[in-house]
UniProtKB/TrEMBL annotation:
Residues 1-47 form the Carnitine O-palmitoyltransferase N-terminal domain. It comes from Astyanax mexicanus (Blind cave fish). This is Carnitine O-palmitoyltransferase. The chain crosses the membrane at residues 50-74. One of its GO terms (biological process) is fatty acid beta-oxidation. InterPro entries: Carn_acyl_trans (IPR000542), CAT-like_dom_sf (IPR023213), Cho/carn_acyl_trans (IPR039551), Cho/carn_acyl_trans_2 (IPR042231), CPT_N (IPR032476). Residues 729-743 have a biased composition (Polar residues). Its main location: membrane.
Length: 749
């Protein structure tokens, strides 16, 4: 700890001759270097703030404007139309300067004001340009003239070599949709899930809400949208994440995996060293803002980077009513080898908040807890071996996923922004807390860490880290704790809650390698839409029904945007699945599946451009609670269970990996726990052109769910849909006969 280093650096003893100072030169050198690094960071941060602040212009453009104005004045022209003379009249120290000096100073001041005005105008123009989203709804190869002109203008106003946060001031604010549009889209989304009488009742509730309370609540949201950067994100973080009182383990946190088929080294310490080195390299690039701004894949359209600010040195602090997310600047990491019991009590929020206040608010416990909460991130040296190994590699991958999600319930620090886990056999992974950011932010960092670990840092022939040991590095400091009996009892009680929750999770992880997005694009379908339809078909075959489906989309086209829900179960998808399962004509099924895919794409685009359903309804509900007004429509709409919760983890940095020469160096993505007790959680990743990875979760306690069975249904649905879209006309009769046979078999069953 810091106190220990200071004690080593400075010691004194009192002798008869006086006070004898004993200074450690090496320790003082480390103090000096630490201070030097701190000042370098401040200078870099100041420089980046200036560059970002004037973007899309550059600081050097100020000099260009000044020279241009002075050159124009030299030709006895007045580009300021008298403003330079006015500035000259009001110079406070005009009496001590010559007339020529006054003129130059006035011209420089005018040039600076003109430069700032131009920057403001360029930012405003770029913001307006980035508010245009019609391009997203146009067909490929059929781009309008308006969009072509827009593309040209965006390129002109976007500047060059942007830093990570350069676009933040130019991103538009998230718009508030019209009440009637949100209500209409909501009713469309639930129509295939409700009977005629249920839908009529819900329609009446929606109309009553739209005609009465809705406009009042909408007024407050529009007022907030004018005042705040984002009318959703702060309430979403507080009420969805921080005010939740249940365990965040399994219910909120998620995980990311290592390479599936390769472990770069079997030596745990070496893998830990390289992994931490790679993560800290990413942290350095992040602090210098050298990471390129994220963009919509295949375009130059920037995405909000606000969530990147809290990747490191961030901790969720529990409270009895609501928690907080604290970001603290510090330079160390905390690692723990777990071979016995641990004092981690914050699996369940309320007991952890009370225990933290009672047992960890002072003394040695507070100092040790501060070290963890101020750390860049948390590291677990796990004493288990995990990964695709042994006689049953598939089952071991499932256990690997469970270990990353919840471990032994006491060997992960679930409140940290993320915890890196290094297993005994060199396999690694991470567990991430969800309130501060969404999965693409963590995934971007983890992709960099995996690629840097294996392809840049590497290992020697014995599996050890390359390079020489630095003997001047400070030794790790053991954290000490004073855990009284009452605290130990609370730990045991929390573990008694957490262990059954962890044991109840049923995981199935697999890499689907029969085909990937390359084959899907050949049939001219959206890969994401294709997979979502396969999931709908798999669920229908598994449960014999349709369900409300959650697919996470992002709203990072807007400032401080996070996520929106795509309600993937639509009337169009249900119509296709019913026709397909009932053995309808192949051409009919093809037409219906394309309608369903196009509908899904439309829903996804609406969600991305701020015209989704659920975040708007959520914020209207929050306003109603602030006003103390009950809305039967909002209460029922927001209480419907998501029995199928899905999310695509995007692969963002393909340039870091070489799937041709190193095809086994692929990560299987990550996953999360089920949202509903009787439902499934499905995370998937499109890896290269030929692989789709799936992480399926459910609960053993539900007799209607089985992750492995559902995984089998997903595989079959993928094959069936691709076969439908690739079958030639000569095989159509045979396909129709197969459909008829399936229908007859169902009737017999």
């Amino acid at each position: 700890m810091a106190e220990a280093h200071q004690a080593v650096a400075f010691q004194f003893t009192i002798t008869p001759e006086g006070i004898d100072l004993q200074l450690s030169h090496e320790a003082l050198r480390q103090v000096y270097l630490s201070g030097l690094r701190s000042w370098k960071k401040r200078i870099v941060r100041l420089k980046n703030n200036v560059i970002t602040g004037v973007y899309p212009a550059s600081p050097s453009s100020w000099l260009f404007v000044v020279i241009a104005i002075l050159a124009t004045m030299y030709t006895r022209s007045d580009p300021s139309m008298g403003l330079i003379a006015k500035i000259q009249e009001h110079l406070p120290a005009s009496g001590s300067m010559s007339m020529q000096c006054q003129t130059v100073v006035s011209a420089v001041l005018f040039s600076t004001l003109l430069w700032l005005s131009l920057i403001f105008t360029m930012k405003l123009c770029l913001k307006q340009l980035l508010s245009y989203h019609r391009w997203m709804f146009e067909q490929h190869g059929n781009v309008s003239t308006t969009t072509k002109v827009w593309v040209m203008l965006v390129r002109i106003f976007s500047g060059r070599q942007p830093l990570l946060y350069s676009y933040q001031g130019s991103l538009p604010n998230l718009p508030v949709p019209a009440i009637k549009d949100t209500v209409k889209r909501y009713l469309e989304s639930v129509r295939p899930l409700k009977s005629d009488s249920e839908f009529e009742r819900m329609t009446n509730l929606a109309k009553e809400f739209e005609d009465s309370l809705g406009s009042r609540l909408q007024w407050y949201l529009k007022l907030k949208a004018l005042w705040a950067s984002n009318y959703v994100s702060d309430w979403w973080e507080e009420y969805i994440y921080l005010r939740g009182r249940g365990p965040i383990m399994v219910n909120s946190n998620y995980y990311g995996m290592d390479f599936l088929y390769v472990t770069p080294t079997p030596i745990q310490a070496a893998r830990a060293g390289n992994t931490l080195h790679a993560v800290l390299m990413y942290r350095r690039r992040l602090n210098k803002e050298e990471i390129k701004p994220s963009r919509i894949p295949g375009t130059f359209i920037p995405l909000c980077a606000a969530q990147c600010e809290r990747i490191f040195n961030t901790t969720r602090i529990p409270g009895e009513e609501t928690g907080n997310v604290h970001m603290r600047t510090h330079a160390h990491t905390v690692y723990t080898p777990f071979t016995g019991t641990h004092t981690h009590t914050h699996t369940v929020i309320i007991p952890w908040a009370k225990a933290r206040k009672e047992f960890f608010s002072s003394g040695v416990n507070k100092r040790s807890l501060d070290c963890i909460e101020k750390a860049a991130f948390f590291v677990t040296l796990d004493d288990d071996e995990q990964g695709m190994m042994g006689d049953d590699p598939a089952a071991n991958v499932d256990r690997y996923a469970k270990s990353l999600l919840h471990g032994k319930c006491y060997d992960r620090w679930f409140d940290k922004s993320f915890s890196v886990v290094i297993f005994k056999n060199g396999k690694n992974g991470l567990n991430a807390e969800h309130s501060w950011a969404d999965a693409p932010i963590v995934s971007h960092m983890w992709e960099y860490a995996l690629a840097t670990d294996s392809f840049q840092l590497g290992y020697n022939e014995e599996g050890h880290c390359k390079g020489d040991v630095n003997p001047s590095l400070p030794q790790p400091q053991r954290l000490t704790w004073d855990i009284p009996k009452q605290c130990q009892e609370q730990v045991a009680q929390c573990l008694a809650v957490a262990q059954p929750l962890a044991d109840d999770i049923d995981f199935h992880v697999f890499a689907f390698r029969d085909f990937g997005k390359g084959s899907i694009k050949k049939i001219k379908m959206s890969p994401d839409g294709f997979i979502q339809l396969a999931l709908q078909l798999a669920f229908y075959r598994d449960r014999g029904m349709f369900c409300l489906t959650y697919e996470a989309s992002m709203t990072r086209l807007f400032r401080e945007g996070r996520t929106e829900t795509v309600r993937s179960c639509s009337s169009e998808s249900c119509a296709f699945i019913k026709a397909f399962e009932n053995g309808e004509d192949v051409e009919v099924c093809r037409r219906l599946i394309r309608n369903a895919s196009e509908k899904h794409q439309m829903l996804y685009r609406l969600a991305m451009t701020g015209a989704g359903i659920d975040r708007h309804l959520f914020c209207l509900y929050v306003v109603s609670k602030y006003l103390g007004i009950e809305s039967p429509f909002l209460k029922e709409a927001l209480s419907e269970p998501w029995r199928l919760s899905t999310s695509q983890t995007p692969f963002q940095q393909l340039e870091l990996f070489d799937f041709v020469n190193h095809p086994d160096y692929i990560t299987c993505g990550g996953g999360f726990g089920p949202v509903a007790d009787d439902g499934y959680g499905v995370s998937y990743s499109l890896i290269g052109e030929k692989i789709i990875s799936f992480h399926v979760s459910s609960k053993h306690s539900c007799p209607d769910t089985d992750s492995h069975k559902f995984g089998t249904q997903i595989r079959k649905a993928l094959h069936d849909l691709l076969q439908l879209m690739t079958i030639n006309q000569s095989d159509a009769a045979g396909s129709e006969q197969n459909h008829s046979s399936k229908t007859q078999n169902k009737k017999e069953l």
